[in-house]
Design brief:
Radius of gyration: 22 Å
Number of helices: 14
Number of domains: 1
Order of helices and strands: EHEHHHEEEEHHEEHHHEHEEEHHEHEEEH
Helix content: 25-40%
CATH superfamily: Alkaline Phosphatase, subunit A
CATH topology: Alkaline Phosphatase, subunit A
Mean pLDDT: 96
CATH architecture: 3-Layer(aba) Sandwich
Shape: globular
């Protein structure tokens, strides 16, 4: 390859796939992301490998599944010897710029070997060589909560309208400013070295709140109906019921849920606006044609579905596992623009970036390059997977330490129980079917064509017996194929 493309990652935190307008949400306003379909591809069936931050990011920056590495908790980050695509691209001659969230490298380690510049979002200094740099979202804007939202609101994560002037100095805006500044400097430098620009924001992660014009932008009357409260369903995992019983949203009106969901979509709209700012800067400086752009999220959010908010580590409904994934390849790569129904995993991303850069990864990974799917091939993968939870007694994975004063207490206290709530589970999606194997409670099986909201667990319905057995065997083969890795080296003996 004579010329290597620039690669830009614009990453959301906790964004659902169906929060995008082109995915059919009538209330959503995402014109800049929708415009990617003019010269890029949006994957309708892209899945994360774990529905919480750290395990997902440790997966999509390596191409390895959480069970392969043990990254199944928010508090176990990467060891120095573990592979990471940021370090690989730096070693292969890319200028690697890391902006925003970490959730990968322990705070007591510098990021020197992973990037050329690191901007934390708290200020505009290059903190690449700093140690003990703990994540801090920086300044927080004051918020106003409408009166009708004040009842039973403590554990909902709803915070309302942010002060606009204060919001200008918050984490995501600082990250975007750092990205725009880098692109200005890169243009001025004109050295021709390809860049790998990793921008990872916090929106639309709760708390659910944003400033004008995005707070009021979403038409509350167009917000789609939410999924039925979990206590009205049978065959759903106990984790959902445990959180539902503690978040105290039982007395919420549908107006309250619509308000929360509308503000979440306002947060998505702000993310869309910020993406547009970065895209326009690429065009202004002549980088756009030579840059492959990836927009995705680490996982999704329930936003009131099943009567809960936030996310859950060992549940796998589409709101938290089916994520946006948009790819606009550099002009040197073929593309069939539009939406695709191809099954894809975030774990496929390192293989895709390496393929674009002409890099041979020197470690075992399980992703498959998406370049073929971007060009229009329909046969990318027969199955995709997601997993989470712990075994009984695995106290290091309980993630305790939050008392009732924390908005995270409903989830984290339920995770600390030694019943079936937080125990291991794994999902496989094949075609229109989704199967979830659970270690200590009833398995799940959904026909997504008949039941896209995953309300009816059909695990005991005889007409699906063959599909269920096939998917159990596919899950077994998956664990056989990916259960461990052998380093690409031979030790002396």
């Amino acid at each position: 390859m004579e010329k290597r493309p620039n690669i830009l990652l614009f990453v959301a935190d906790q964004m659902r796939y169906d929060s995008l307008s082109h995915m059919g949400n009538p209330a959503s306003k995402t014109p800049n992301l929708d415009a990617v379909l003019e010269d890029g591809v949006s994957f309708a069936n892209a899945y994360c490998q774990n529905p919480v931050c750290v395990p997902s990011r440790c997966s999509f920056l390596t191409g390895r599944y959480p069970h392969t590495t043990g990254h199944r908790t928010m508090h176990f980050l990467q060891e120095p010897q573990e592979p990471n695509i940021l370090r690989t691209m730096k070693e292969q001659g890319y200028e690697v710029i890391w902006i925003g969230r970490n959730d990968i490298i322990p705070a007591n380690r510098a990021k020197t070997e992973y990037c050329d510049e690191f901007y934390s979002g708290s200020d505009f200094e290059n903190h690449r060589d700093d140690t003990d740099l703990k994540f801090s979202p920086g300044a927080k804007a004051e918020t106003q909560v409408p009166e009708f939202m004040e009842k039973d609101n403590y554990y909902s994560f709803y915070t309302g309208k942010m002060d606009g002037e204060q919001a200008k100095n918050t984490f995501d805006w600082n990250c975007v400013k750092s990205a725009l500044d880098y692109l200005d400097r890169k243009k001025q430098k004109g050295d021709g070295k390809p860049f790998f620009l990793y921008i990872t924001l916090s929106f639309p992660h709760p708390p659910y709140g944003c400033e004008e014009p995005w707070f009021s932008s979403i038409d509350r009357g167009k917000v789609p109906p939410r999924r039925t409260d979990v206590e009205k369903l049978s065959g759903k995992p106990s984790m959902l019921s445990g959180i539902r019983s503690k978040q105290n949203l039982n007395n919420w009106s549908e107006e309250q849920y619509r308000e929360l969901r509308a503000v979440y979509l306002g947060m998505v709209e702000r993310f869309d606006h910020q993406f547009g700012m970065v895209r326009d800067k690429l065009k202004e400086h002549g980088f756009y044609e030579d840059t492959s752009i990836f927009v995705f999220s680490d996982h999704g959010d329930y936003t009131g579905d099943y009567g809960i908010t936030e996310k859950v580590q060992n549940c796998f409904e589409d709101p938290i596992t089916n994520v946006p994934l948009l790819i606009k390849p550099a002009a040197m790569f073929p593309v069939k623009p539009g939406k695709t129904q191809v099954l894809a995993e975030l774990l496929d991303l390192p293989a895709t970036w390496a393929d674009m850069a002409g890099v041979q990864l020197d470690y075992t990974q399980f992703g498959k390059s998406l370049l073929g799917a971007v060009a229009g091939r329909p046969d990318h993968k027969d199955a995709v997977f997601c997993e989470g939870g712990r075994i009984h007694g695995e106290v290091q994975a309980m993630e305790g330490g939050h008392g009732p004063q924390s908005p995270y207490w409903p989830r984290l206290s339920t995770q600390s129980l030694e019943g079936p709530e937080h125990t291991k589970a794994a999902m496989v999606r094949m075609g229109q079917y989704k199967y979830v194997m659970r270690l200590y409670e009833m398995d799940e099986f959904y026909d997504l064509e008949l039941d896209p909201m995953e309300l009816v667990n059909r695990i005991n319905e005889p007409e699906y017996e063959k599909q269920i057995q096939d998917m159990r065997m596919r899950l077994l083969r998956f664990y056989m194929e990916t259960g461990d890795t052998v380093p690409n080296r031979r030790d002396p003996r």
